[in-house]
From TrEMBL:
Segments traversing the membrane: 67-89, 109-129, 141-159
Protein origin, superkingdom: Bacteria
Keyword Membrane: yes
Keyword list, A-Z: Membrane, Transmembrane, Transmembrane helix
Pfam families per UniProt: DUF2975
UniProt name for this protein: DUF2975 domain-containing protein
Organism: Kordia algicida OT-1
Length: 173
């Protein structure tokens, strides 16, 4: 393996681990802040790093709880993706990049990104409904996840085809 490529893969794996740990910390901080906001409703104005969900807490505690759950689930799913990326970067072999392990990890990443997109659609429908009926300014999630899931799916299919071609090549040699 090229020394430069090996160093780059190690750096990317290190950064993916940092992202994984950071997202877990973010989800944990929101859980802890939510616990504090249950006892002290004013804490909802700055739930985590300026995240103001007080408008939902003032309207309905049930809706506030559900929206906080959306955020926690979003960050946990993103951490799960980062974990798969660390595994993917560990599994990549430059000499033989097309392995079933890489294909499986790419599929898992794609399906998890698809789950994040579905979660964002549910969240956005919920906050838009609250905006209409409770007159609360909505703060929807971004919806770029479907495009990213599509790209990862295409990559998984390319690697799947690469596994077949690499296996056929090994059999003919």
């Amino acid at each position: 393996m090229n020394l430069k490529t090996e160093k780059l893969l190690k750096l990317m794996r290190f950064l993916a681990w940092i992202a994984f740990i950071g997202l877990l910390i973010k989800a944990g901080a929101i859980i802890m802040s939510f616990g504090v906001s249950v006892q002290n409703p004013e804490a909802a104005t700055n739930l985590y790093q300026g995240m103001d969900l007080s408008r939902y807490a003032n309207a309905s505690f049930a809706h506030y709880t559900i929206i906080v759950f959306y955020y926690i689930l979003l960050y946990l799913l993103q951490a799960y993706i980062a974990l798969f990326i660390t595994k993917l970067l560990s599994a990549i072999n430059i000499e033989k990049p097309f392995t079933q392990t890489v294909v499986d990890l790419l599929n898992k990443i794609g399906y998890t990104i698809l789950a994040v997109w579905i979660l964002s659609i549910i969240h956005n429908a919920h906050v838009i409904g609250l905006e209409k009926y409770a007159e609360i300014d909505a703060a929807p999630f971004a919806n770029e996840y479907i495009f990213l899931a599509g790209i990862v799916y295409v990559l998984a299919q390319l690697f799947k085809r690469g596994v077949v071609m690499q296996t056929e090549n090994e059999l003919t040699v």
